[in-house]
Amino acid sequence: MQSNIKVKLSHHGCYGLNVEARFDHIEEPICFVNVAVVGSEFVVMKYEVNPQVTAKEAQAAGDEIDRVLEQEAFKLSIKRLLIVHPNQDTAEFVREYRVQPFVMGFGVKANTPIYVN
Asked: For residue range 33-90, what is the model confidence (pLDDT) as tens digits?
């Protein structure tokens, strides 16, 4: 049975947000990220993946979280995504968000992610 993944975004004032991904029929999250807003950057401060999900399910949930972060980056004029891994005190660059100019005169803008890998 194929399950849909739902994503829930919670804002924590002007300082950050939490994004959870879960199956539509299960309350426990597949994964989540806590993100701080630092200037024009998102910094992932904490993340967790449910150990009972498959790698494919975790990847699909992560893709949905990434989509939501990209939308929020556009709204908040965020330029980069960084991550602080557990037991480390420095942030690693993950991606850059770029706002594209108007597309074909329709006034539609899109963020184009640039990945490091």
From this structure: 999 999 999 999 999 999 999 999 999 999 999 999 999 999 889 999 999 998 998 9
7 within 8 A of 68, measured Cβ to Cβ: yes
How many secondary structure helices (H) and strands (E) does the chain include?
A: 1, 7
Tell me how many domains the chain contains.
1
Spatial separation of the C-alpha atoms in residues 63 and 105, rounded to whole Å: 29
Q: Whole-prediction pTM value?
A: 0.79
pLDDT of residue 7: 94
Residue 25, domain extent: 5-115
Which two tokens mark 50?
């449910």
Nearest to 99 by CA among 116, 64, 81, 75: 75
Residue 56 near residue 71, CB atoms below 8 Å: no
Asked if residue 57 lies in contact with residue 106, where contact means CB atoms within 8 angstroms, the answer is no
Q: Tell me the CATH number at 48.
A: 3.40.630
Eight-state DSSP code of residue 8: E
